[in-house]
Amino acid sequence: MLPPPALALGRRHAGLTLIELVVVICIIGVVAALLLDRLRFYQEAAEKAAMESTLGALKSALQLRIAAMLVNGEEAKIESLARANPSAWLSEPPRGYRGEFRADQPVMPRGSWYFDATRGELVYLPDLADHLKIGGAGGKSLRFRVQIEFEPSGRDSAGHRQAFRGMRIVPVTEYAWF
Q1: Which residues of 15-31 are buried (b: 16+ CB within 10 A; e: fewer)?
Q2: pLDDT of 143-167, one tens digit each?
Q3: Which residue from 87, 86, 119 is spatially nearest to 103, judged by alpha carbons?
Q4: CB within 8 A of 155, min separation 6: which ones?
């Protein structure tokens, strides 16, 4: 009597061999690593968008503050805005705002805003900064200040400042994020 053909050729298993299992695990590992890298990239892009949104709100608040001063005839007080804390112009402080500090570099968690009262600068410490490049020395913090613009001639013949042209919030050092 001849054995059945399946027994003659050897037993076939319905599962994976060890090599197939290792290959599948390696493929899953590579795909997971790529997905996690993309996730981190998108988290950093979202953080940048949130920071720029906060800056946009601060710029709008500055323009509203200037307009209110002009309407109320308080042109002389406009220059004081250059030294003021911009977060005070908002109805509520930005998310992650830690307050005003006079220390050189206070210890803050990443993703925080604070106002450096000694320099008159609003500072943001990014949480994710893999794609952030800051010009000059300054580490990984973004610093912004209120800049006053006057008419091009600067001063009149008597030495008084020329007419106020505008104000804006500008970065202290140039940066590129992405």
Answers
A1: eeeeeeeeeeeeeeeee
A2: 999 999 877 765 666 666 667 788 9
A3: 119
A4: 161, 162
How would you class 125 by CB atoms within 10 Å of its CB: exposed for 0-12, middle for 13-18, buried for 19 or more?
buried
Q: Are 138 and 105 in contact (CB under 8 A)?
A: no
pLDDT in tens, 8-31: 555 666 788 999 999 999 999 999
Residue-range domain boundaries for the chain = 17-177
How many CB atoms are located within 10 Å of the residue 114 CB? 22
Q: Are 140 and 134 a contacting pair, CB within 8 Å?
A: yes
pTM, full prediction: 0.81
